[in-house]
Design brief:
single chain, alpha+beta
Length: 335
């Protein structure tokens, strides 16, 4: 199984998926990467290939927006294209090549992405028409980057490392349980004080933990948000709002940020509610993985660290020059 963290380079490959249109015939060198020129013609090819990809996926860009959009996208992806060339050179020097397994996996991925049913890469290339050679280059790089993932995916994981991770997870789970217990106790005490008739502002100032999350959030006890009857998508808040009116406040409600007590500041005729809140921190749920799940988690972290170090070393050693400078005009379409 391919660890999720090793999708770092697949993300780099996805930088090639940009939209575009026909551009000028003459070309200029935008960068020289380890002696290899990166031209605006190449950038246009990358962008044009993605126009076809977008068309296959049913998201064609309007003709009237093409030129302006494509030039902006060309500028945005350019650093990624430089990085991709550096990585490709480094993989070649390290003897990392794509095999039949990588080719097969990438054919499946592209078929799913493009809504195609090509039986071979060549059949898929042909569906790009005049852009077949440009897409073939992209496909080949994607396979190479997949091989890079595979090379670093198989990291050794010891039983001791698994034991350490599980010990850490169990400690974290206990810490989370203690934080949840305290959060609930604090929320219940604030709730009891409000029910006893204490002033909202006084209780909020003394009890709300919003300021501990972010100092700017302290003002949420005065004004937090305006919500509709759906309550920001929180079911418990939506249920509470059915019986709350101006001046009322809720019992503690469990939301993504923790426990909250809300006060209705205003109630609109269109069922919009202006709310203030108090927050009481709760921990993120902690799940204890099986030993095999822990092994995969450690392996993924190791793989990512190895890949990251490999790429950083390549970038430090790479020789990159920019004949047009580093602040040139990226109007590579329609000049």
């Amino acid at each position: 199984m391919m660890p999720k963290a090793t999708n770092l380079v697949w993300a780099v490959a996805l930088l090639f998926f940009m939209l575009g249109c026909d551009g000028p015939k003459e070309s200029r060198i935008l960068a020289i990467v380890n002696g290899k020129p990166l031209t605006d013609a190449f950038v246009r090819d990358v962008v044009n290939v993605n126009a076809k990809i977008s068309e296959f996926s049913g998201k064609k860009v309007a003709e009237k927006d093409f030129r302006n959009w494509a030039n902006k996208e060309s500028e945005r992806i350019f650093p990624g294209l430089v990085s991709a060339q550096i990585l490709e050179d480094g993989l070649a020097a390290a003897g990392i090549v794509a095999g039949t397994n990588e080719t097969r996996r990438l054919l499946v991925k592209y078929n799913m992405m493009l809504r195609r049913r090509a039986r071979t890469p060549e059949e898929l290339f042909g569906q790009f028409g005049d852009l077949a050679d440009a897409f073939k280059l992209q496909f080949g790089r994607s396979c190479l980057f997949e091989a890079f993932n595979v090379r670093f995916a198989e990291q050794e994981v010891t039983d001791a490392e698994i034991d350490d991770l599980l010990d850490d997870k169990n400690i974290l789970k206990k810490v989370a349980a203690d934080l949840d217990k305290k959060g609930k106790e604090h929320a219940d005490k604030a709730w009891e004080r409000l029910k006893a008739g204490e002033d909202w502002d006084k209780v909020a100032k003394e009890c709300s933990e919003d300021k501990l999350v972010d100092p700017h959030n302290e003002s949420f006890s005065k004004e937090w948000a305006t919500v509709d009857k759906e309550g920001f998508g929180y079911p418990e808040l939506a249920i509470a709002l059915r019986t709350l009116h101006k001046g009322d406040y809720s019992k503690p409600i469990d939301v993504d940020e923790g426990l909250i007590i809300v006060k209705v500041l205003a109630e609109g005729k269109d069922k919009k509610y202006a709310l203030a809140r108090m927050l009481f921190r709760m921990a993120e749920p902690v799940t204890i993985p099986s030993r095999e799940e822990a092994r995969e988690e450690i392996r993924a972290k190791k793989a990512f660290a190895k890949q990251d170090a490999f790429v950083k070393d390549l970038k430090e050693k790479a020789v990159v020059t920019y004949p047009c400078g580093t602040n040139f005009n990226f109007k590579v379409f329609g000049e």
